[in-house]
Inverse folding.
C-alpha cells in the first residue's frame, strides 16, 4: 500500500509560508532589470480594471495561454497500455490486469504512440528512421511504413483508419535535427488497413489537425490557409485541397484555433491579432468573415456542436454564434467588469462555463450559466494559469500561477504554487498548496478523480472531487507522463528509469503497483 500524505497546508501556517518563492516561470512581462511588471502593458489598464487612463493602451495585449498540461506518452486502450521506449527503439505493451509486459521492436527513436479505438492496432512515430511502426496487438507483429523525411508529429483519425504525419514547429526536437533539405509543408497519410502511404504538400507551417467524428475528413490549419484531406478516398487518390482564409497572403495572421463542427459542414477559426473569426463552408468552400468585437482571445465549440463561443476581450463580452448558420448575428453576453474576459472553458456536459484570464494577474473567475445567460463572479486565492471542468461537469480545477495579485496582503498562498477545486453546486472553494508546479494532469472518465504530476517530484497528486480532497501517493522514481485507462479509476504513471518503469495508481484506494524493467525480466513491486 502506498503512503498517503495530505497536501493541504492550513491557513494557520500563513506566517511561515508568506516568504516569496522563485518566480522564474512567471507568465507576466519583465522589464530589462528582470523585475516583474505588475501590468502587462506597462499598467493594468486592460480588461476588468484600468488603473490609469493616461497610460498608453496602444500596445497589443498578450495572448491568453491555453496550457494543455496533459501530453501523455503512454497510451491506453481497454486493458493494455503502450509505452514508447525512445532510447531503446522499442514499444512496451503492458497488460493492466496481469502487469505482464511484452516489448516489441520499432523504428529508430519512437517518440509518439497512438492506439486505434478498439485497441486492434498501435502506431509509433519514429523520429530517426522517418517511418511509423504499425503493431498488430493480437498477433504481436510489427510492420514499419515509411513516411516523408524529417516530420515530427503523428495524429490518428477518430475511426483509427489513418494516421497523418507532419512537421509541427511547436514540436521541434533538438535531439533529432533535420539533415539535407527541410520542408515545413509535407504531410504523409498512412492507411492502417492497407499499410500504404500517400504524401503531398499542404499550406505552409501546419500547426494542427482536426477530424470529423467518422474520420472521413481531416482539416490541417496553417498560415493563411486550411488544407482539406478527404480520407474516404482510396489512399492513392488522397491529397490536400487548399482553402485560403486570408486576403493578405504576404503576411497572413497566424491561426490560433480551429474548430470543426461534428457534421463536417463548417470549420471555424480564430487568428492572432484579427478582430474577426472566419467560417469555411466545406460544401461550397466559401470563406465567411465574422466580426468578433475587439481582440478576440479565445474560441470554443459547445459540446453539442450547436454553437461557437468567442471571447471578445477588448469589448468584455462573449459572442455566441450559431454553428450551423454563421451569418446569423451572434448573441452578445456581457462579462461583469469584476473579471477580465480572456478565456472560456465550457463544461463537457453543456450548460455552463468558466470565464477567466491568464494574461492578467487576477484572483477571480466568472461562472456562466448558459440557460440564464448570467455570469456570476467568484473569488480565488491566486491568479489563474489554466482551468479544467471535470468530465461530469460538477467540479472545476484551477491551476494557479506562482505570482500573486500585485499589492494583495500576504497569506498562506503567497509565493507558493497552488491549485483550487471548486464545487459548482455551491461554489465551495478548496485551495491547496502544491510543492512544485503541476506539469501533467488527467481526469477519470466519470469525473470522480483527477491525477496530476509535479515537476521533478515523486509524489503524485490524487484529487477526490466528490469530497474536494487532495492527497499524494509516492512512486519509486521521478514521473514524466500520466494517463487514465478508459472507464476505470486507474491511472498509469511512467517514470524515469534506465530499463523503463510504470506505476498503476488506483485513485480511490490510493495504492500503486509498479512494473520495472521492460527490456529484462519484468518484476512487480508492491
Amino acid at each position: 500500500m502506498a503512503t498517503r500524505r495530505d497536501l493541504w497546508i492550513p491557513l494557520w501556517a500563513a506566517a511561515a509560508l508568506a516568504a516569496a518563492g522563485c518566480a522564474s516561470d512567471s507568465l507576466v512581462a519583465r522589464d530589462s532589470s528582470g523585475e516583474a511588471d505588475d501590468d502587462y502593458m506597462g499598467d493594468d489598464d486592460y480588461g476588468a480594471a484600468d488603473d490609469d487612463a493616461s497610460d498608453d493602451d496602444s500596445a497589443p495585449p498578450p495572448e491568453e495561454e491555453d496550457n494543455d498540461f496533459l501530453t501523455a506518452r503512454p497510451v491506453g486502450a481497454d486493458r493494455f497500455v503502450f509505452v514508447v521506449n525512445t532510447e531503446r527503439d522499442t514499444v512496451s505493451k503492458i497488460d493492466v490486469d496481469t502487469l505482464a509486459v511484452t516489448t516489441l521492436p520499432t523504428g529508430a527513436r519512437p517518440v509518439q504512440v497512438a492506439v486505434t479505438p478498439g485497441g486492434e492496432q498501435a502506431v509509433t512515430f519514429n523520429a530517426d528512421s522517418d517511418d511509423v511502426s504499425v503493431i498488430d496487438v493480437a498477433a504481436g507483429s510489427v510492420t514499419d511504413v515509411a513516411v516523408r523525411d524529417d516530420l515530427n508529429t503523428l495524429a490518428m483519425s477518430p475511426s483509427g483508419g489513418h494516421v497523418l504525419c507532419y512537421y509541427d514547429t511547436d514540436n521541434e526536437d533538438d535531439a533529432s535535427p533535420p539533415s539535407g533539405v527541410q520542408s515545413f509543408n509535407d504531410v504523409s497519410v498512412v492507411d492502417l488497413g492497407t499499410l500504404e502511404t500517400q504524401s503531398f504538400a499542404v499550406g505552409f507551417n501546419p500547426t494542427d489537425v482536426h477530424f470529423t467524428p467518422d474520420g472521413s475528413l481531416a482539416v490541417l490549419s496553417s498560415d493563411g490557409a486550411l488544407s482539406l484531406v478527404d480520407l474516404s478516398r482510396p489512399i492513392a487518390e488522397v491529397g490536400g485541397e487548399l482553402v485560403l482564409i486570408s486576403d493578405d497572403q504576404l503576411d497572413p495572421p497566424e491561426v490560433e484555433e480551429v474548430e470543426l463542427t461534428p457534421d463536417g459542414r463548417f470549420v471555424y477559426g480564430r487568428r492572432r491579432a484579427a478582430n474577426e473569426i472566419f467560417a469555411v463552408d466545406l460544401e461550397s468552400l466559401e470563406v465567411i468573415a465574422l466580426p468578433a468585437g475587439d481582440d478576440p482571445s479565445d474560441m470554443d465549440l459547445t459540446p453539442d456542436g450547436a454553437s461557437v463561443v468567442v471571447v471578445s476581450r477588448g469589448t468584455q463580452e462573449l459572442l455566441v454564434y450559431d454553428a450551423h448558420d454563421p451569418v446569423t448575428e451572434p448573441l452578445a453576453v456581457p462579462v461583469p467588469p469584476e473579471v477580465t474576459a480572456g478565456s472560456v472553458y465550457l463544461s463537457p456536459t453543456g450548460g455552463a462555463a468558466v470565464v477567466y484570464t491568464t494574461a492578467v494577474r487576477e484572483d477571480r473567475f466568472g461562472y456562466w450559466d448558459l440557460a440564464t445567460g448570467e455570469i456570476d463572479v467568484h473569488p480565488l486565492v491566486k491568479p489563474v494559469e489554466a482551468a479544467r471542468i471535470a468530465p461530469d461537469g460538477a467540479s472545476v480545477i484551477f491551476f494557479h500561477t506562482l505570482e500573486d495579485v500585485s499589492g494583495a496582503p500576504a497569506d498562506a498562498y503567497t509565493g507558493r504554487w497552488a491549485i483550487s477545486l471548486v464545487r459548482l453546486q455551491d461554489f465551495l472553494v478548496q485551495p491547496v498548496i502544491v510543492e512544485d508546479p503541476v506539469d501533467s494532469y488527467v481526469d477519470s472518465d466519470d469525473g470522480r478523480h483527477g491525477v496530476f504530476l509535479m515537476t521533478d517530484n515523486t509524489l503524485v497528486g490524487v484529487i477526490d472531487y466528490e469530497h474536494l480532497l487532495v492527497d499524494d501517493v509516492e512512486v519509486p522514481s521521478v514521473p514524466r507522463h500520466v494517463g487514465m485507462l478508459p472507464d476505470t479509476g486507474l491511472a498509469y504513471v511512467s517514470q524515469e528509469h534506465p530499463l523503463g518503469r510504470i506505476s498503476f495508481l488506483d485513485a480511490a484506494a490510493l495504492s500503486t503497483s509498479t512494473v520495472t524493467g521492460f527490456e529484462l525480466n519484468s518484476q512487480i513491486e508492491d
Q: What stands out?
A: The chain has one helix and 42 strands. Confidence is low (pLDDT under 50) at residues 1-47, 49-58. The two ends are 7 Å apart (CA to CA). The helical segments are 14-17.
